[in-house]
Amino acid sequence: MIAPADKESITRAAVLLREGKLVAFPTETVYGLGGDATSDKAVAAIYAAKGRPQFNPLIIHAAEPHALDDFIEWNETARLLAAQLWPGPITLVLPRKKSCPVSLLASAGMDTLAVRIPSHPIAQQLLKEVGRPIAAPSANASGKLSPTTPVHVAESLGDKVDMILAGGKSAVGLESTVVDLVSSKPRILRPGGITREQLEKLLGSIDIASGSETPLAPGMLPSHYAPDLPLRMNADAAAADEALLTFGPDAFVKGGATRRNLSKAGDLEEAAANLFAMLRQLDQGKFRAIAVMPIPETGLGAAINDRLRRAQTR
Ligand code: TXA
Ligand code: MG
What we know:
The protein has about 325 residues and is an alpha/beta fold. It is built from eight helices and 15 strands. Strand 10 (about 185-190), helix 6 (about 195-205) and strand 11 (about 205-210) form a beta-alpha-beta unit. The protein starts with a strand and ends with a helix. Bound molecules: threonylcarbamoyladenylate (TXA) and magnesium ion.
């Protein structure tokens, strides 16, 4: 069921998607569980495969910004961010056009639509061949860790997906940054692969939606991205029965039945790319909990800590 993403299997995947089937495919952030966004049936199948609460809307993917013209109302900020940051790990939430052909189920009945142009070459080829908007949440069971390899997808969704296109390890490793461009001032709804600092360079200041507001995004739910084991952040040492996730030089950190290092060099991009895979490796019943060393809150650290906080909440 895992197919190496050569020309032939990309074409087969495009055919499956046009038939309303589900295909998991690589993106630079995490693997997506794709379905034809214009088909209510395909979108319903995505929710069913993930076990996802249906009020959580999906991101619509296309090969290039122009392909979104029939779906959303562009504004000046959206054009600027699209020109500067697409294709790439950022999702824009915009008003949905009245005539938008995307299934209402995909946007959970809201009058807005979240759209993204991924940069991964296999995602690009696939989206071009399908020629339709593709709804794609992360290809994992709802609330669980996001997949950054084809094997993660197979472990999480098994035969609930008709095909898994294999395209190696996701380079960014964290989901896209979701930015609300409907409100009068742009707001980050979910921190992710594009940092607040990058956005502030382009837009001046930008707000971050606080956790106390009504969650517009499931990524904003207090508990999400969760391993099965309890998780403990900002650990300066680990117990003998805890698995330990470290960052930077870790020789001085005591304890831990086993440990993984997100980035020995203390590089936040490397750490983001390793986060979900390493959490999976440590999420084993033989340990009592996962202890995680402090991660700086700057740059991609904000998104890493956001995922860890939600994994810690249960
Ligand atoms: O990197 C990513 O964004 C990956 C890859 C596959 O593209 N996709 C992803 O999808 O993370 P998902 O469904 O796991 O997360 C989508 C996020 C959720 O937090 C959802 O609530 C939010 O986007 N979202 C979708 N439509 C929205 C809307 N109309 N308004 C506000 N938030 C929305
Ligand atoms: Mg997700």
